[in-house]
Design brief:
Length: about 200
C-alpha cells in the first residue's frame, strides 16, 4: 500500500492510559507506607520509602506510555488502512474488506491471573475503543509472546480469500477519530460505514 496519511497517538492520552493504574498505585502506596513504617519504626521513613517506590512505578508507566505513543501509528491510503504497534506488528485492511465500525479490543488480555494468598485475584482485561472491523492481514513481530500467537491463530479466516478477521483500534490513536481526519478517510472510501 502506498500510504498517503499517517496518524500517531496524542501525548495527552497519558491520563487515559494511566487511569486503570491509579487505584492500584494508591493501594500500593498505602501498603508500602505501612510496611515501611512498621519495619523502620518511623512514619517519616515509611512515607519516604512509599513515595520513592510509587514514583519509580509511575516513572515506568510514563516511560511505557511514551514508547507506545512514539511507536504506534495508523496509515491511510486509497487502498486501505494499516496500523503498526511499537513492537513492529502490523494490521492491514483494504477498504472493500472492512465490514463495520464497532467497539474493538486494542490488545489481547493476558491469560495469567495474579493471585495473592488470601487476597484478591486480578487479571488484566483488554482495552476497548472504537475501530474498524473486517478481513485483512496480520504481520506479527518476532517478540510477540506465544500465548498471543495462539490466541490470534484462533481468529476466523475467510476460506475464499485466506484473510483473517481483524479489528483495527483507531480509537487507541484518537478517541474522536470519527470526527477528524481519520474519519474523513473512512467517509471518502467507505461512506456506508459512518452513515
Amino acid at each position: 500500500m502506498g500510504f498517503v496519511d499517517e496518524f500517531r497517538m496524542r501525548r495527552r492520552s497519558l491520563l487515559a492510559f494511566a487511569s486503570p493504574f491509579i487505584l492500584p498505585l494508591a493501594l500500593f502506596f498505602v501498603g508500602t507506607l505501612l510496611i515501611g513504617s512498621f519495619f523502620a519504626n518511623s512514619g517519616v521513613v515509611g512515607l519516604l520509602s512509599a513515595a520513592v517506590v510509587t514514583a519509580v512505578l509511575m516513572g515506568v508507566l510514563v516511560a511505557r506510555h511514551g514508547r507506545m505513543v512514539a511507536g504506534t501509528v495508523a496509515r491511510f491510503s486509497p487502498q486501505g488502512v494499516e496500523m503498526e504497534d511499537v513492537y513492529g506488528s502490523r494490521l492491514r485492511l483494504n477498504w472493500p474488506d472492512v465490514d463495520r465500525v464497532d467497539v474493538v479490543e486494542s490488545h489481547v488480555a493476558s491469560p495469567c491471573r495474579i493471585v495473592r494468598p488470601g487476597g484478591a485475584s486480578v487479571r488484566t482485561g483488554a482495552m476497548q475503543c472504537v475501530g474498524l472491523v473486517g478481513w485483512g492481514e496480520r504481520d506479527l513481530s518476532q517478540s510477540v509472546p506465544r500465548w498471543i500467537r495462539v490466541a490470534l491463530a484462533r481468529e476466523p479466516i475467510d476460506p475464499d480469500t485466506g484473510l483473517q478477521r481483524l479489528s483495527v483500534p483507531l480509537g487507541a490513536i484518537d478517541p474522536r477519530w470519527e470526527q477528524g481526519s481519520m474519519g474523513d478517510w473512512v467517509r471518502r472510501y467507505r461512506p456506508d460505514l459512518l452513515a
